[in-house]
Amino acid sequence: MAKMFNKIMGIIGLDDGSIEEEFDDQEDMKLPRETDEELDEPILSSKKSNKVVNIHTASSVRVVISRPKDYDEATAICDELKNRRIIVVNVSDLEPKTAQRLLDFMGGASYVLNGELQEVEKNVYILSPSNVEVSNELQTELSGKSMFMWNK
């Protein structure tokens, strides 16, 4: 009966000899050996490293007030904008043609640096870098209303 049982087990594939043979086959397989070059490669993790950004930066916002006397001061004003500073420019001392040239130069620089050039008052302009938003709500409020009650 044991022979018949072994035959049935052999047909099904559960013969003790075949199981041992499978294990022997696995032992004969050689695993590829790692070379020194492979060991020197860094192991990269599948996780992406998170970047930590400090929201409390030590740099303070500076406002530069400029009253240019001639067109040659345009580059110095735009350098301040390049350094991410807010600049208030009063062009009342310039001739109208020179003031227009200066404003064109500053407008081009603010466009290139993704900044903004806004008129605050007649002959007074503000240049702001891309990281500063300037709200101009007061101008629209003043244009609709008189400053003094008796001027209505």
Automatic annotation (TrEMBL):
Entry keyword annotation includes Glycoprotein: no
Q: Tell where it localizes.
A: Cytoplasm
Q: Name one Pfam family in it.
A: SepF
Its BP terms in the Gene Ontology are: division septum assembly; FtsZ-dependent cytokinesis
Among PANTHER family, the record links this protein to: CELL DIVISION PROTEIN SEPF (PTHR35798:SF1)
Its assembly, as annotated, is:
Homodimer. Interacts with FtsZ.
HAMAP family for this protein: SepF
What family does the entry list?
Answer: Belongs to the SepF family.
The name of this protein is Cell division protein SepF
Q: Which organism is it from?
A: Clostridium pasteurianum BC1
Tell me the organism's taxonomic lineage.
Bacteria, Bacillati, Bacillota, Clostridia, Eubacteriales
